[in-house]
Write a structure and sequence with these properties.
six-stranded mixed beta sheet, alpha+beta, 18 helices, nine-stranded mixed beta sheet, 35 strands, Rossmann fold, Dna Ligase, domain 1
């Protein structure tokens, strides 16, 4: 765009408690905005965060900001909330005649997708309520074999009858999942066309479009999930686009996908499954961006917001992916960034297990409404945030830069009544217990994501993201032996930072089950088809050839084994036998890396299950500029001294507090200390020291 007013790149991420906004101007300067999320109408929270961001930029209104915006990126929790609350579209399903129960049967492994605690009590568990009940499943004739040959033709009249029966039962969306549609999707297309022709208001998802891979149950589950959340996410995004356009935005928003790329609203609506857990994915992309900026290829992306605690890994500059994630115990064939999470955030509720007489924290949370007791919005159950207030870490008069006053007395009283009194201790002792327990939960998850997967956490730099993280994570780092914790300038809105540093990314794939040795000609032909589609789609999206990158990979496994590994294919030209030998060798290496030395079984041979292509349309990255570092003296940023509780002292100690905006690159602060920003609070423990780097990140050196 040549309009000289179009100077801003904006990213907005909706979290469980806060909606975050990051704005990058033409000079490479970052500004942020933050507001409470509004679950009753998420778009209201988006506008509130934009208003705060515009004010922080010195602009008069949201209209001034949006009118000068050239790229607008968005990540939201609409799909996640829709699934969690079971508030999706009334969904029907059309399947091949004789196969109505594929989705209901699930997998035979009854512990699949369960936590360790749930798995230990599996006998008392039931399958989740299906998103599509048996009464909303229709069968249609027709049969295609694994080669794509039509064995039995379908019947247009029977298809129309099935569609009409579903619509008579008030379905709003239809999932079409026919056998071997990945080899020939003609019958699925016939069903989809009938739905659109007879009832264009009904949303439709085809398995051959949403999940064109082997695995009948997984392919069906993926399509059902996409159909279930599709109408809700499509309605939200189109309404948001209309509202933003009315306020001056002239560009269509691009929507974050769980695999780390961006898609248009139309593409997102067609493949809604990609928006599940897209917010955490944006945070990981932002962490990689920070790692690249400061020269750290191994990053522990650790996100503690108001509701959850999430961990992901960037190793050697590469983000780890999960090609078969689990949602509500259903295996899904939709690639996403690998993220592990638990219910441990600033809003996690502290409670007493009456049977055991023990203090527990989480996984239930207070959310944005009513929120922690200290918010004064109606919350009555003490949370981690309330403990942080009681211990002096959070300044009640400067939370969200003073926009939300915290009620410390109410927080202390709630902890005293609900936790301390039943346990026979003081409110401060109870708050300290809440603080230690939540830190232990977080450290345990990091260990499971590193040590249990063969990685040494001491080889990583921790990037602390989320509004609550900078209070807690230096403690976790000390427990794990991690020596450096980076709190980015945009820590509390870091998922929004990931949005403005992402690219438009499409994922393509096709199943092709072949026993090695693979035929380079056949493999090349398959990749040529996928790459051709990718190049055409990105060209239609406005990208020139020099802005497009295509990456090829293959899903391999040992014969007669269950675990496949996605392996990048070396090179970009015609495939040679030497390329395939390197592919096999790399698979052996990755398999042992994933499952332990000696776990591989090369003697069994190898087999390919699928080809994949990741197509990237490169967008201009934020030009964040470094500032020369100066003196280490931080005294000019010192604010008041207040009592803060530290384990080393076993009590409150007078602690200097610092204004983040008064610090300059090079400034050093020795612990104990607290650094206050308008959107988060950074705690520097007694044995640690913090330094502001040339990008205005605060780096805590632990121990």
């Amino acid at each position: 765009m040549t309009d000289s007013r179009a100077r801003y790149i904006v990213g907005v991420d909706i979290g469980g408690t806060f909606t975050d906004c990051v704005i990058l101007d033409a000079d490479g300067k970052l500004s942020i905005g933050k507001a409470l999320s509004t679950p009753h109408d998420f778009a209201a929270g988006v506008v509130d965060s934009l208003e705060n961001g515009a004010a922080n930029l010195g602009l008069r209104s949201v209209e001034d900001l949006l009118g000068a915006t050239r790229l607008f990126f968005h990540a939201c929790t609409v799909s996640d909330n829709t699934l969690i609350t079971r508030s999706g579209a009334r969904t029907g399903m059309v399947v091949t005649e004789g196969f109505p129960d594929t989705f209901l049967m699930m997998r035979g492994n009854v512990t699949h997708g369960l936590t360790e605690t749930e798995a230990s009590h599996v006998a008392g568990l039931e399958k989740p309520e299906p998103l599509v009940p048996r009464t909303l499943t229709e069968e249609v004739p027709g049969r295609i074999d694994y080669k794509g040959s039509v064995l039995i033709e379908t019947d247009a009249g029977r298809i129309e009858e099935a569609v009409e029966r579903l619509v008579a039962k008030r379905v709003e969306s239809v999932a079409v999942c026919l056998l071997w549609s990945i080899a020939n999707d003609a019958h699925e297309q016939a069903v989809a066309e009938a739905v659109r022709r007879l009832h264009p208001e009904v949303h439709v998802s085809r398995s051959s479009e949403v999940a064109p891979f082997l695995g009948e149950y997984e392919r069906t589950a993926t399509t059902v999930f996409s159909a279930y959340i599709g109408p809700r996410i499509a309605s939200y995004l189109r309404n948001l686009q209309r509202d933003l356009a009315a306020r001056g935005l002239r560009q269509e928003p691009l929507v974050m996908q769980a695999y780390g790329g961006m898609l248009s609203i139309e593409e997102t609506s067609r493949k809604a499954i990609g928006t599940l857990e897209s917010g955490p994915a944006a945070g990981v992309v932002g962490s990689k961006f920070v790692g690249d900026l400061i020269g750290e290829p191994n990053v522990l992306a650790v996100d503690m917001g108001g509701t959850t605690f999430k961990v992901s890994l960037v190793r050697k500059g590469n983000i780890e992916r999960d090609y078969q994630p689990v949602f509500e115990r259903y295996s899904i064939l939709a690639p996403k960034i690998w993220v592990a999470s638990i219910g441990a955030g600033g809003g996690s509720i502290a409670w007493i297990d009456e049977k055991a007489g023990l203090l527990k924290v989480g996984p239930r949370g207070a959310g944005a409404a009513p929120g922690p007791v200290a918010y004064g919005l109606g919350g009555t159950e003490p949370t981690v945030c309330d403990a942080d207030v009681a211990l002096g870490y959070l300044n009640p008069k400067y939370f969200l830069g003073g926009r939300l006053a915290l009620d410390k007395d109410a927080a202390v009283a709630a902890i005293g009544e609900r936790v301390a009194k039943p346990l026979g201790m003081t409110a401060v002792e109870a708050a300290g217990g809440i603080f230690r327990i939540i830190n232990a939960h977080m450290s345990d998850l990091i260990r499971r994501c590193t040590v249990e997967r063969g990685y040494d956490p001491r080889e990583f730099t921790m990037v602390a993201i989320g509004g609550s993280a900078p209070v807690h994570l230096a403690r976790c780092a000390a427990q794990l032996g991690v020596r450096k914790v980076v709190i980015p300038l945009t820590a509390s809105v870091h998922a929004a930072t990931g949005l403005i540093s992402a690219d438009v990314t499409y994922e393509y794939g096709m199943s092709d089950h072949v026993v090695a040795p693979l035929d380079p000609v056949r493999l090349g032909a398959g990749f040529d088809r996928l790459c051709g589609r990718a190049a055409n789609d990105l060209a239609r999206a406005g990208f020139q050839e020099h802005d497009i990158d295509l990456f090829r990979s293959v899903d391999l496994r040992y014969r007669y084994q269950l675990n496949e590994i996605n392996v990048p294919l070396p090179g970009s030209g015609p495939i040679t036998d030497a390329d395939l030998e390197r592919l096999y060798e790399r698979f052996d290496e990755l398999y042992e890396q994933s499952f332990g030395k000696g776990a591989g079984y090369p003697e069994a041979g190898k087999e390919m299950l699928a080809l994949r292509v990741t197509a990237i349309g490169r967008l201009a990255k934020p030009a964040v500029h470094a500032t020369a570092t100066g003196a280490a003296d931080a005294s000019g940023a010192r604010k008041k001294t207040r009592p803060v509780y530290f384990e080393e002292h076993g009590d409150f100690a007078p602690t200097d507090t610092y204004d983040f905006h008064g610090l300059s690159p090079g400034a050093r602060i020795d612990g104990p200390a607290v650094i206050e920003t308008p959107v988060t609070t950074i705690v520097v423990n007694p044995k640690d020291h913090a330094v502001m780097d040339e990008f205005r990140n605060v780096v805590i050196h632990v121990g």
